[in-house]
Automatic annotation (TrEMBL):
HAMAP family: G6P_isomerase. The keyword Isomerase applies. Residues 21-31 have a biased composition (Low complexity). GO terms for molecular function: carbohydrate derivative binding; glucose-6-phosphate isomerase activity; monosaccharide binding. It is an enzyme of class 5 (isomerase). GO terms for cellular component: cytosol. Pathway: Carbohydrate degradation; glycolysis; D-glyceraldehyde 3-phosphate and glycerone phosphate from D-glucose: step 2/4. It comes from Chloropicon primus. Pfam families: PGI (PF00342). This is Glucose-6-phosphate isomerase.
Length: 672
């Protein structure tokens, strides 16, 4: 097994002491515990009764004879520490292992196959279809065989995937560059679970915040919490960027048209303000009334440059109309920096905590997402969302690899990237309500695994990370599907639902509107897989000169994911599925999927630009060579400044569009 050598040895921890944890990771459906292999049948597990306070209960649904015959590789403190030591000494990279080389040797065998013929193998198709609590995943259109899967499972074993998953759930500091645990799974753990990290039960802390969110959101929604002028709050603006924006926006978009959630949100509006571009401010505040608007500022440190500038801007929008004292009634915060929150004018009691063991892109289940979304839909709806995410968390931790959907999805995705060398993936939901899934997963995936070095700082010997993009069907079909059918090979994730959130059927039509949508869902995956060759085209009397243009090579991989419907619960399932898939790839590649140093340099350079721009404006000058920018950037900055010379920073006045703040210094619409 290949793994990193960490400061804390992997394996089960004692229930007391700093950094230790009270958790039992192997619990079968009968409540029995045992150090059984994750690939052994749950029904064979025996042992002493399970503690009622475990972070995760097993959701094992059964396994195969193949799984039951595999070697036990469960967590064992002594054995695993020895394995880590010997593996780290033997292999510098996962790419040096026999399991990796076996997959490289397997590539020619796959190159000789075509999905057109692989799809005729019914046994293979059944083997490559997995289901868990309504979430159905079909991997039969991927360029893999059962042998490929076995080789990938061997690679996962070599990388210590099972042990690394358990370390994450146990609160080990697997984010080594920032010396942090990675516990977004704790933000949706059951109330009665126990996870001790640094002497504290973090699940207890999570539920204190969730209870506070429920109480506060109930007050606002019931009209008990009134604004500064005595009017009830009807609208919410959530200010945050990155994971503080993309995740909550994804969930909001998924629930907006779901009948039950929509009814709960009747008469309410939720908007997001992320971009520091003042256009985003104007759009977020358009037609809102300060008297009935609540602002949620989301910033862990309360120092994020873009977020805090937007927060100050919206604060001015509120105080210009209602006065300074209105801040405490119309602005709340999700942050850990109570001091700065208080200095901003927000009542410290209206601060909702989250923790450094929750990364921004993984934070939607914390107060980051739960507060604004509970204000919009009610805590009851959002609790169902947490339950869906928890369901896949349990499945991810406990299911044997052969039955584990996120593990299979992650390993096949890794196969496509590092072995078949596909540089991108398209996320294609045939459900308009999932329109913001691709942008959110784009951040979760690309910020997590867009790395060039391993955990030890050594350059990777293989391709890792991928370009994620997507658009709901059928819109994407009329945009970029030309490329994925006849241009570069881009593996796709097709996501569909059996029931629509909004059913429409017109008399005289042969199918409903949703049926029409789903016909494309089924057809596009097959078109990519099977293609159309010259023989078939000639049989249709296609002229010879057009045959090259109308040929579809096929053999283009995709995964099909089918949900019973899209509601709060299944939205949580999809979120957890993709988060876990990203972790699987990072664990096998041996990279840190939970830091993001690549975003830092641009921030530093932007700070320099900010300082020099202030100096240039204040002194009524242009950027000079002595300011330290290269020739190209100097010219760009000066071209920008020449068009903005009417604004002098020393002048002590606020300037807003008049439709936001009507004052003597406002800018009429025709002058913006």
């Amino acid at each position: 097994m290949l793994s990193r050598v960490s400061a804390s040895k992997p394996g089960p921890k004692k229930a007391n002491g700093g950094g230790n944890i009270n958790i039992n990771v192997n619990v079968n459906v009968n409540g029995k515990t045992s150090p059984t292999s994750p690939r052994k049948a749950a029904g064979n597990v025996t042992g002493p009764a399970a503690s009622p306070k475990n972070l995760v209960q097993s959701s094992r649904q059964g396994t195969t004879a193949c799984g039951s015959s595999r070697k036990d590789h469960s967590v064992n403190a002594l054995d695993m520490s020895e394995a880590v030591k010997s593996s780290a000494e033997k292999y510098a990279s996962i790419a040096d292992t026999p399991a990796w080389k076996a997959l490289v040797d397997h590539i020619p065998e796959i190159e000789e196959t075509h999905l057109r013929y692989l799809l005729k193998d019914e046994e293979r198709c059944l083997r490559l279809s997995l289901e868990h609590n309504g979430l159905y995943s079909d991997f039969s259109r991927q360029r893999v065989t059962p042998e490929t899967l076995e080789l990938l499972f061997d690679l996962a074993k070599e990388a210590g995937l099972k042990e690394k998953i358990e370390q994450m759930f146990q609160g080990e500091q697997i984010n080594e560059t920032e010396h942090r645990s990675v516990l977004h799974v704790a933000t949706r753990a059951e109330r009665n679970k126990e996870l001790i990290v640094n002497g504290k039960n973090v699940v207890e802390d999570v539920w204190k915040v969730l209870d506070k969110i429920k109480h506060f959101s109930d007050q606002v929604r019931n009209g008990e919490w009134l604004g500064a002028t005595g009017k009830p709050i009807r609208d919410v603006v959530a200010i945050g960027i990155g994971g503080s924006f993309l995740g909550p926006l994804f969930v909001h978009t998924a629930l907006k048209t779901e009948p039950v959630a929509s009814m709960k949100a009747s008469g309410r509006r939720l908007r997001f303000l992320a971009n520091v571009d003042p256009v985003d401010v104007a759009r977020a505040l358009h037609n809102l009334n300060q008297e009935t608007t609540m602002v949620v500022i989301i910033s862990k440190t309360f120092t994020t440059a873009e977020t805090m500038l937007n927060a100050r801007t919206v604060r001015k929008w509120i105080t210009a109309e209602l006065g300074e004292e209105a801040v405490s009634k119309h602005m709340v915060a999700v942050s850990t920096n109570v001091k700065l929150v208080s200095q901003f004018g927000i009542d410290p009691d209206n601060t909702f905590e989250f923790w450094d063991w929750v990364g921004g892109r993984y934070s939607v289940c914390s107060a980051v997402g739960m507060l604004p979304l509970s204000l919009q839909y009610g805590f009851g709806i959002m609790e169902q969302f947490l339950e869906g995410a928890r369901d896949i968390d349990n499945h991810f931790l406990n299911a044997p690899f052969e039955k584990n959907i996120p593990v299979t999805l992650g390993l096949i995705n890794l196969w496509n990237i590092s072995f078949l060398h596909y540089p991108a993936r398209a996320i294609l939901p045939y459900c308009q309500a999932l329109a913001k899934l691709a942008p959110h997963i784009q951040q979760v995936s690309m910020e997590s695994n867009g790395k060039g070095v391993d955990m030890n700082g050594k350059p990777l010997k293989f391709e890792a990370g991928q370009i994620d993009f997507g658009e709901p069907g059928t819109n994407g079909q009329h945009s970029f599907y030309q490329l994925i059918h006849q241009g570069r090979v881009i593996p796709c994730d097709f996501i569909g639902t059996i029931k629509s959130q909004q059913s429409v059927y017109l008399k005289g039509e042969i199918v409903s509107n949703h049926d029409e949508l789903m016909c494309n869902f089924f057809a596009q995956a097959d078109a990519l897989a099977t293609g159309k060759n010259a023989v078939e085209l000639r049989a249709e009397n296609v002229p010879d000169n057009l045959i090259p243009h109308k040929t579809f090579t096929g053999n283009r991989p995709s995964t099909s994911i089918l949900l019973p419907e899209l509601n709060a619960y299944t939205t949580g399932q999809i979120l957890s599925l993709y988060e876990a898939m990203v972790a699987v790839k990072g664990f096998v590649w041996g990279i840190n999927s939970f830091d993001q140093w690549g975003v830092e340099l641009g921030k530093v350079l932007a700070s320099k630009c900010r300082s020099k721009m202030n100096s240039a404006r204040t002194q009524s000058r242009l950027i000079e060579a002595s300011d330290g920018f290269n020739f190209s950037t100097t010219r760009l900055l000066n071209r920008y400044l020449k068009g903005k010379t009417f604004l002098q920073y020393p002048e002590p006045r606020d300037i807003f569009p008049c439709d936001l703040i009507d004052s003597e210094n406002c800018i009429p619409p025709d002058e913006i």
